Amino acid sequence: MIARPFGYLRDPLFLVCLALYFLNRFVGKPLTGGGFLHEHFNDMICIPFWLPILLWFCKKAGLRKTDAPPLLIEVLVPTAGWSVIFELWLPILSPRFISDPWDMTWYLLGGMGAHYFWCATYPPAPLREAGGGGEP
User: What are the angstrom distances between the C-alpha of 99 and each of 16, 86, 90, 115?
Assistant: First the structure.
């Protein structure tokens, strides 16, 4: 049993990333001429932004049976999927999309940071000792 269920759309990291996305979109990018805010910031917050939404849909559809924080595999599979879709397939299908290998690095760094945050924020319940007596 988990000590505290994963927050999904109420998760604090998701809510911060949601606010940061709009702040970057409407304030950061217009005030800067390029660099990290233009090129990689949204890639870095991609996993902590989209994964809680994806897992919420999976939970509602009955595909996710737990309310534990995302497992490492639940972080890595979407990270690989977004990397393939946005950095390999879409640039081949349309010249509107540009492949940038650094984007994949930022997806991974954001995902690993999110995974670390979620594990620290939603720690597992302590295991009870067998035969400890006193408690049923």
Answer: 27, 7, 8, 25
Dihedrals φ, ψ of 7, to 5°?
-80, -15
Non-local (6+) Cβ contacts of 78 within 8 A are: 47, 50, 51, 54, 111
Q: DSSP for 36-56? A: HHHHTHHHHTHHHHHHHHHHH
Three-state secondary-structure class, residue 21? helix
Q: What is the pLDDT of residue 33?
A: 84
pTM for this structure? Answer: 0.86
**Tens of pLDDT along 82-136?**
999 999 999 999 999 999 999 999 999 999 999 999 999 999 877 665 555 545 4
- Give me the residue label for tokens 């509107």: 96
Rounded Cα–Cα distance for residues 80 and 62 (Å): 23
The answer to whether 9 touches 52, Cβ cutoff 8 Å, is: yes
Alpha-carbon distance of 26 to 20, in angstroms, equals: 10
